[in-house]
Amino acid sequence: MAKLQGFEFWRRTLKGARFVVAPMVDQSELAWRLLSRRHGAQLCYTPMLHAQVFVRDANYRKENLYNEVCEEDRPLITQFCANDPEVFLQAALLAQDHCDAIDLNLGCPQMIAKRGHYGVFLQDEWELLEKMVKLANEKLSVPITCKIRVFKEIEKTVRYAQMLETAGCQLLTVHGRTKDQKGAMTGVASWEHIKAVRKAVNIPVFANGNIHHLSDVERCIQETGVQGVMSAEGNLHNPAVFEGHSPPVWEMAEEYLELVKLHPPCSLSYVRAHLFKLWHHTLQIHKDLREDLAKVKNLEGLADVSKQLRLRCQEHIANRKDVDDQDGSLPFPHWICQPYVRPVPKEPVANGNSQSSEVKKTVCQKRALEDSDGSTENLSKNKLKKRSRNPNKNFCPQHKSKYIKCDQCGNPKGNKCVFNLCRGCCKKKAFKEVADCPSHGLRFKTKAERFQAEENEKKETSTSSAQLTPDQTDLQGQSQAQPLL
């Protein structure tokens, strides 16, 4: 059977999917995908998988894809991050029998993607991307799709999308944010970029960004003309977002936990992360249970904390306290599934100093050190543990011990170093001068003397054996040849 392409692939294989759950690292696992499908999702992606690890590690393949094969979980697209055409192809070949398409991640903006050189950090390497997509399109039995972020310039974004289409991409997901729009600087996604891409290409396009409610989905499709809409954050806070329904949090939490039990194994960290997202607004009020949720070590413990949150919310509802606890910024009471909307970064001011950079600095500012009065309010958990073991411990920089600096590099020197240096400088000097430094555990002189002694002993042995007379040699041989009595 010939491989379906473009709109034919979207209509027949993906069944014209309009409501799509995004690929989310450690979040779009099987149990969560099934929950989302029960509540309106028509297409799901796997979490982003590392192509190189997928190729070399059979356990990684088993845990992240092979174990999760389920008839209810279709259509399904497997997403990989990669920066090598051959490695990407090998991973895709191993996965193609377990999904309906292979997606190349070109949108991840996180620091780990920058270090690994994948995701959005490949968006300027068009020649490499063209080769990766073209090779996969030629060799795979399933279509190749891509998920991208936009450039600041609409024209460049359009050319980027057209290049991927020409290379063989059969479906394109466009996240309407740039590489720098993340974290506190996330801001609003540009549907104008998505609209321009949709008009310029002849393959299906999914839109991603600013999707929190079903009304956003409908408005996005109308304004951009895309075939489908993908949700990530909106889906994590409300799995029923595509139903246009905002149920009580505990209903979604309990249903999800049941699916986790039905489809093991599921990493405890995934389940914990989902419960933190679902109960996000409630945990701002019941902070004691937030601590409990972070500490429990098994699935039963997580379910118990979720149950306690449900009971507290129901008690508040019965006593009509939910109005008092409701945050004025929330459209619904905190116990209703609803999105978390990040504050929009402020616009640059007239003098050219961007307030957004000030916002970023504020968000990224490190925790303050201990106050001069000895207060522990601002200490980290790690320092509080140290304080509990040693009540007299002081973390104030002014009270830290003063160390004598190394003469060569400025690092603290060893207290008993024979050269009065730090270990690094001492090692170099001791090696050069063939010396010992007991303080730093360096024994270059001792080892050299031992080696020399062994060499001298070998020479003496060889010399003495060479000086034996022929008669002595014959006698020695005869004595060795005599049988034992």
UniProtKB/TrEMBL annotation:
The protein's matches in CDD domains, at most eight in alphabetical order, are given as:
DUS_like_FMN (cd02801)
Give the species this sequence originates from.
Betta splendens (Siamese fighting fish)
Q: What EC number(s) would the UniProt record show?
A: 1.3.1.88
The annotated regions of Polar residues compositional bias extend over 466-485
Q: What is its main location?
A: cytoplasm
Limits of the DUS-like FMN-binding domain: 21-299
The taxonomic lineage of its organism, from the top, reads:
Eukaryota, Metazoa, Chordata, Craniata, Vertebrata
What GO cellular-component annotations does this UniProt entry give?
cytoplasm; nucleus
Which reactions fall under this protein's catalytic activity?
5,6-dihydrouridine(16) in tRNA + NADP(+) = uridine(16) in tRNA + NADPH + H(+); 5,6-dihydrouridine(17) in tRNA + NAD(+) = uridine(17) in tRNA + NADH + H(+); 5,6-dihydrouridine(17) in tRNA + NADP(+) = uridine(17) in tRNA + NADPH + H(+); 5,6-dihydrouridine(16) in tRNA + NAD(+) = uridine(16) in tRNA + NADH + H(+)
Region entry Disordered: which residue ranges?
A: 367-396, 449-485
What is the protein name for this chain? tRNA-dihydrouridine(16/17) synthase [NAD(P)(+)]-like
One Pfam short name? DUF702
* PANTHER family the record matches: TRNA-DIHYDROURIDINE SYNTHASE (PTHR11082), TRNA-DIHYDROURIDINE(16_17) SYNTHASE [NAD(P)(+)]-LIKE (PTHR11082:SF5)
- Under which main EC class is this enzyme filed? oxidoreductase
GO molecular-function terms, A-Z? tRNA dihydrouridine synthase activity
